[in-house]
Amino acid sequence: MGVDGEDHQTTELDMDKIPEHVAIIMDGNGRWATRQHLPRVAGHKAGMESVKKVAIAASDLGVKVLTLYAFSTENWKRPTSEVSYLMKLPIRFFNTFVPDLVAHNVRVMVMGHIDELPAGTQKAVNQAIADTKDCDGMVLNFALNYGGRDELVGAVKALGQDIQDGKLAPESIDEQAISAHLMTAPLGKLADPDLMIRTSGEERISNFLLWQIAYSELVFVDQSWPDFDGESLKAAISVFQHRHRRFGGLVNK
Ligand code: V07
């Protein structure tokens, strides 16, 4: 409770030090639901509402890329009923939220193996991408059927193929060549998150972005994803702003 008697926080941010790329592991939807005796899918539904709120809040703060871990390559191991519910969320998201995104000039991008998703889900994802393609504000980048190690396997395969085809010499493989073969390559100089947030108290990366977080600030928050809102995002950005970034002592971006 603040001195003004209102039950809200007001985090003061340095608007000149807003992280350009924020990545979030949206954990705790199932636990949030179970805690209130609801089925796990109710947590995923509530989680989607958080996606909408947090995306607009990030865009309003001037974040340039917001990457959200929506579905991992390991999530297929969950019960079939939960997986099929999750697979419908991009459709629901598309039907209810794309006009709002366009109004906020937000562009949807997706990284991951979209080709392995149900046809209707692929269609909704591609529609969201197509309908927002002219937006030049924040990029809302969904990691969908994505795995960090799988992404690196793909990059190594592509580099190996380039060598076999005589297009690349092994000695010319450098960090830039690897980055160029990752799923974040379309983000260009914004490919690496400045800030990675994980909700729900777990302090792990769980095969989300691996290469790209080499110098990211990691912020773990106890709130479940359905409870995370614009104010929570500001609080995490405030933590980020109080860290001293050293980039391995090499550069000072
Ligand atoms: C999903 C809601 C957020 C909490 C975590 C899991 C459940 C948005 C999307 C989405 C993905 C691609 C796209 C448009 C929307 C989504 C899945 C799960 C599988 F183009 N939320 N959300 N996709 N959850």
TrEMBL record:
In alphabetical order, the GO MF annotations are: ditrans,polycis-undecaprenyl-diphosphate synthase [(2E,6E)-farnesyl-diphosphate specific] activity; magnesium ion binding; manganese ion binding
Active-site residues are 27, 75
Example GO CC term: the record gives:
cytosol
Q: Give the UniProt keywords, A-Z.
A: Magnesium, Metal-binding, Transferase
Keyword ATP-binding among UniProt keywords: no
User: What EC number(s) would the UniProt record show?
Assistant: 2.5.1.-
Tell me which cofactor or cofactors this protein depends on.
Answer: Mg(2+)
Q: Which example biological process does GO assign this protein?
A: polyprenol biosynthetic process
Q: Where does substrate bind?
A: 28-32, 40, 44, 72-74, 76, 78, 198, 204-206
Q: Give the residues the record marks as binding Mg(2+).
A: 27, 217
Task: Give the domain of life.
Answer: Bacteria
- Note accompanying the cofactor annotation: Binds 2 magnesium ions per subunit.
Q: Known InterPro entries for this protein? A: UPP_synth-like, UPP_synth-like_CS, UPP_synth-like_sf
* Subunit annotation: Homodimer.
In UniProt terms, what function does this protein have?
A: Catalyzes the condensation of isopentenyl diphosphate (IPP) with allylic pyrophosphates generating different type of terpenoids.
Task: Tell me its family.
Answer: Belongs to the UPP synthase family.
Q: What is this protein called?
A: Isoprenyl transferase
Protein's organism: Candidatus Limosilactobacillus merdipullorum
Q: Please name the taxonomic classification of the source.
A: Bacteria, Bacillati, Bacillota, Bacilli, Lactobacillales
